[in-house]
UniProtKB/TrEMBL annotation:
Record's subcellular location: Cytoplasmic vesicle, COPI-coated vesicle membrane; Endoplasmic reticulum membrane; Golgi apparatus membrane
Protein name as catalogued: ER lumen protein-retaining receptor
Main location: membrane
Residue spans crossing the bilayer: 65-82, 118-138, 150-168, 180-199
Family annotation (InterPro entries): ER_ret_rcpt
Biological processes annotated in GO: protein retention in ER lumen; protein transport; vesicle-mediated transport
Pfam families per the UniProt record, alphabetical: ER_lumen_recept
Membrane topology type: Multi-pass membrane protein
Domain of life: Eukaryota
PANTHER family membership: ER LUMEN PROTEIN RETAINING RECEPTOR
An annotated Gene Ontology molecular function: ER retention sequence binding
Length: 214
């Protein structure tokens, strides 16, 4: 395990904590896409089924359990605890547009045609597009709360650090996971415009706003 993966995991966990603390302190889930959070919960569920079959390390097991718990707590807070503040009108991305092609691709492009391997592949592909409902929601409302932008920034930073992790592993271990690398690059591309706006606006104390769709 190298420093890039550890920092990536920390960034990922920090993003989730920022989101949970934001909802708990404001008693609201306004501006947060419940659909994106459902997809992330599905990502962790299908990826971490190996918790019941394989032990890698204490660190690996603890992080998997934490991410699973946080994912379902987030979904619970949006759809149960703070459901009255949930903006269902703007959280209108059609999930089948992501789930259907991702499911098909996971059956066509995988390393081994076994249930656990297909589900792991499905989780990798799905994670690369799971943020789209959140970005779509922001594009519909035209703006995002500062705390939500911090969440997105650390989520994007996690993916960028994992790309560095793959580069490091390629040169030090001669390890290359094509499915994970390609999916990670695709996911990072989705964050590029957001990163630019984050640096030029949010870090200067301005509110992140986008042109309203016609």
């Amino acid at each position: 395990m190298n420093i890039f993966r550890i920092l990536g995991d920390i960034s990922h966990l920090l993003a989730i904590i920022i989101l949970l603390v934001k909802m708990q302190k404001s008693k609201s889930c306004a501006g947060i896409s419940g659909k994106s959070q459902i997809l992330f919960a599905l990502v962790f569920t299908t990826r971490y089924l190996d918790l019941f079959t394989t032990f890698f390390s204490v660190y690996n097991t603890v992080m998997k359990v934490i991410f699973l718990i946080c994912a379902y707590v987030t979904v619970y807070m949006i759809y149960v605890k703070f459901r009255k503040t949930f903006d269902s009108e703007n959280d209108s991305f059609r999930l089948e547009f992501l789930l259907v092609p991702v499911t098909g691709l996971s059956f066509l492009e995988n390393y081994s045609f076994t249930p656990l391997e297909i589900l792991w592949t499905f989780s990798i592909y799905l994670e690369s597009v799971a943020i789209l409902p959140q970005l779509f929601m922001i594009s519909k409302t035209g703006e995002a709360e500062t705390i939500t932008t911090h969440y997105l920034f650390f989520l994007g930073l996690y993916r960028a650090l994992y790309i560095a992790n793959w580069v490091w592993r390629y040169y030090t271990e001669n390890f290359y996971d094509q499915i994970a690398v390609v999916s990670g690059v695709v996911q990072t591309i989705f964050y590029c415009d957001f990163f630019y706006l984050y640096v030029t606006k949010v870090l200067k104390g301005k509110k992140l706003s986008l042109p309203m769709p016609v």
